[in-house]
Amino acid sequence: MSVIFIHIPKTAGSTLHYILNKKYTEKKDMYSISHGLMDDSAITRFKSLPLEEKERFFLVKGHMPFGLHTVMPNPVTYITFLRDPVERILSYYSYLLVKPDHFFYQRGMSLDMSLKSFVTSPFSVEMDNGQTRLLAGVHTDIGIGECTDAMLAIAINNLEKYFSVVGLSERFNDSLFLLRDIFHWDRIPFYVKRNVGPRKNTRKHITPYMATLIEKTQRFDMDLYRYANGIFDRQMKASKIRSIPVFFYGLFNRVHQITNRYE
Q: Is the dihedral of CA 233, 93, 37, 101 positive or negative?
């Protein structure tokens, strides 16, 4: 059995990459797809690998749309994390404002772009219901503003049929316990949060009007996120994960983050 981790941008995926790297540090059968959304050649390179080489990979991870299982010789299960679409868009905006070397500046992002312009005039598909796009397996195949209810239905069906863990950024530690139970980890590594942008824009920092505007532009992601919450609750209930171990893991991990902030 091989595992494919679809890293949706700005969903705490960089932190999960770090944890997976620590968990499987001794394994030689892990493949990372770098910049798979920026440059399709990274995904193409993996697809072109000989079957016997792909057969040895236990874990394939990175930015990619759903569908890589079709070129895998082994049975495959997927994992991914989703995030509240409002918080995800706000996180993207804050992150890009301090990353003027990001390739999005070649697509239309600017340092003086207002949040409203960022929300209402997306210059890249990642900001146009990006979670639905990746999990439906379409990504750039559909233009900006062209997401449909059919795409949402495909994304939901994929989550139900192919994903053994549907995690949530907002319940990151609970999601790690799900991973532990599904993949039989003996322990969960401690972590320091990775690739975290400034926190000056969150739901509590914006007006209700702006929150509603983001929800409207991310309508399909909002519906997908609500559905994913239901899957997550079912998985938690089936795994019988108790809140006390999760609480103490989070407590000890805070200490780890304080003492290893430059890790």
A: negative
Domains parsed from the chain with CATH numbers: 2-259 (3.40.50.300)
Q: Is-above-0.85 flag for pTM? A: yes
Give pLDDT tens digits along the chain (263 positions).
Answer: 899 999 999 998 889 998 998 887 666 688 888 765 766 788 888 899 999 888 888 899 999 999 999 999 999 999 999 999 999 999 989 888 888 888 788 777 888 889 999 899 888 888 899 999 999 998 778 888 999 999 999 999 999 999 999 999 999 999 999 999 999 998 888 888 876 666 567 888 889 999 999 999 999 999 999 999 999 999 999 988 888 888 888 887 888 777 776 55
